[in-house]
Amino acid sequence: MAKTTAKTAPAATKAPKQASEEKSAVSVQPIMNQQFDAPAPLQKYGTVSQRLPIGLDADTRQKSVEMLNQLLADTCSIRDMYKKHHWQVVGPTFYQLHLLFDKHYEEQDALIDMIAERIQILGGVALAMAADIAETTIIPRPPRDREEAPVQVSRLLEAHQIILKNCHDYAKKADDAGDDGTNDLVVSNVMRTNELQVWFVSEHVVDTPLARAE
Ligand SMILES: [Fe+2]
């Protein structure tokens, strides 16, 4: 496209250009505070729309969304517990655990996105905010205090076990209802990741001799 400079432009084109500049200066002003008199939300939490044609009935979607929001809340909790422990870990295994905890944090964070997007695909509304996660999760809340590494690991193993027990239950229910996508997500992603992390974390609390075989 030919580029017209101010120097070569005909005089007749100058006035409309100024008018459009004025208009765009007005339209870029943000319209604030719309949340205070907003109409009804697009979709209420807890409801499931049938918008996407994915071959699953309303009842199946509703049940899967409820299970996945629980799994989402618990996965957010264990993710954040990993970051807490990544920051607060102390002791001779500091470096290993510092790195391992952050790796597991990243893996749990990836699971959260998969779970939340599955909820949206099913027509549900995914939980998102920390306060809502805190109200929903069944993973016991750790203290704000800094704890010894074996205590951190024990808390993580307990959280993994809670999630894994739910995974077995949810996978079977999703399978029975014909929701293969949810079954696959729960088994292939959430369950497999949590099982692997249990293995890596558990080895840090095995009471084994360091120098001499007993
Ligand atoms: Fe870090």
Automatic annotation (TrEMBL):
Q: Which domain of life is it from?
A: Bacteria
Asked whether the UniProt record includes DNA-binding among its keywords, one would answer yes
Bias kind Low complexity: ranges: 1-17
Q: Name one Pfam family in it.
A: Ferritin
User: Does the entry feature the keyword Signal, yes or no?
Assistant: no
* UniProt-listed PROSITE patterns: DPS_1, DPS_2
- Ferritin/DPS domain residues are 66-209
Report what the protein is called: Starvation-inducible DNA-binding protein
Q: What is the lineage of its organism?
A: Bacteria, Pseudomonadati, Bacteroidota, Cytophagia, Cytophagales
